[in-house]
Amino acid sequence: MAQETQSAITPEVKAMIGVSGDIVESWGYVDTEYLRRFTQAVMDPDPRYWDEEFAKSTQYGGVITPPIMVSYMASRVPPNTPDPITKAFEEDPMSDGIGSVERLGSLPRVPTDLVRVLNAGNELEIYQYPSIGDKIFFQNKYSDIRERVGRDGKPFLIVTTETTYRNQKEEVLCITRASSIRR
User: Fold this and answer.
1) Residue 88 pLDDT greater than 80, yes or no
2) Distance of CA 157 to CAs 20, 139, 145, 161, Å?
3) Does residue 1 have a pLDDT over 50?
4) Residue 54 phi/psi, 5° resolution?
5) pLDDT, tens digit, 9 for 90 and up, residues 24-71
6) What is the 3-state secondary structure (H, E, C) of the chain?
7) N or C: which end of the chain has fewer CB within 10 A?
8) CA dihedral defined by 76, 79, 85, 90, rounded to 10 degrees?
């Protein structure tokens, strides 16, 4: 007789779908120095990001920023503020540097005993490029939680977190969706 496995998607887990975090203002603003450093770090030499004359000749009419840059701005902390990743490792040297890190706008933990976290993919929906001088605001939300059964017959969860990034005019810049597997 086949042994029935217990579902990992409990009513408490289902209740997390749609839960949103606070709207958070990123520290700083989109500036040319951060843009320069970011494009160097990701090794993207596109002149639309730095050459004012060239950028004026494009459909955007000026310097633009890589749309994904706002997601990195969301994790910036002001000077003299404790680093949340360092704090996580101080509290638990076995921290994965992801799941146990408390950041501004963090969502409550999904109530599950499944603690191993694996990246299951990311997607980016672009609405407009951030502009120099923009203040960035973001909000996280659990947009989906699904259950699957692995080859070992054990259930696991696929948790999708959606983050919406807006500028100071409340215009949507982009939406990211990050899925993770909880085993």
Assistant:
1) no
2) 19, 22, 7, 13
3) no
4) -60, -45
5) 999 888 999 999 999 999 999 999 999 999 999 999 899 999 988 988
6) CCCCCCCCCCHHHHCCCCCECCCEECCCCCCHHHHHHHHHHCCCCCHHHCCHHHHHCCCCCCCCCCCCHHHHHCCCCCCCCCCHHHHHHHHCCCCCCCCCCCCCCCCCCCCCCCCCEEEEEEEEEECCCCCCCCCCEEEEEEEEEEEEECCCCCEEEEEEEEEEEECCCCCEEEEEEEEEEEC
7) N
8) -170
Instruction: Indicate yes or no: pTM above 0.70.
Output: yes
**Cα-flanking dihedrals φ and ψ of residue 69, to 5°?**
-55, -35
CATH T-level assignment (fold) for domain 11-29+69-182: Thiol Ester Dehydrase; Chain A (3.10.129)
**Domain residue limits, the chain:** 11-29+69-182, 31-64
